[in-house]
Amino acid sequence: MIEIRDLSKRPALDRVGFTARPGRVTGFLGPNGAGKSTTLRLLLGLDRPSGGTALLNGRRYRDLRHPLRTVGALLDGAGPVPERRAVDHLTWIAQSNRIPRRRVGEVLDLAGLTAVARTRVRRYSLGMGQRLGIAAALLGDPAILVLDEPVNGLDPDGIRWVRELLRDSAAAGRTVLVSSHLMAETAETADDLVVIARGRVVAAGPLAEVTAGHRSLEAAFFALTGR
């Protein structure tokens, strides 16, 4: 479970609070500059809050004994060393986190990258880089997934793969939090929604509840965020 309680980071966030539960895909939506990335960085221990807490299965990220076995994350802009081969990148992560090496081959296969595992990352397309980032997030077989714009750069086959991955992960009992700008895709995959605007949560709850009275998720989003 992910629990965000009165999380603040001046001036970007003001007492943000929501819960993402196991067995469900939670879509995290908001305009540019609304505070989504700041929230995710605070959750993953990359920044310190000015108030409140962000918990992963009841603990702060910095207190997790084996972080990658608890939470796997893909953050926009994060990536491997361009000159490193994909298999070496994942092997280094596995070794540094005491993850069995067999997982490297498993996640490469899951991400559809086995054939290019020994290709240097600088030669990867944007979509291949996204697949590698998701493979890294899955490496520790974590109970929680936090993915920022996971379909960015993917072709239709890749988008379908991510959609199935999110649904299968939730069905297996994982907590899945996905930040996205794509309303139609979020409507296809999310069970619950959290909508943030101007550093505050303006709506949170099941998809049907948040979109009630609106013709689509997009219409609900614009109404809630004042766009």
Automatic annotation (TrEMBL):
Gene3D superfamilies: P-loop containing nucleotide triphosphate hydrolases (3.40.50.300). GO terms for molecular function: ATP binding; ATP hydrolysis activity. Pfam families: ABC_tran. InterPro entries: AAA+_ATPase (IPR003593), ABC_transporter-like_ATP-bd (IPR003439), P-loop_NTPase (IPR027417). Keywords: ATP-binding, Nucleotide-binding, Transport. Residues 2-223 form the ABC transporter domain. Belongs to the ABC transporter superfamily. This is ABC-2 type transport system ATP-binding protein. It comes from Actinoplanes octamycinicus.
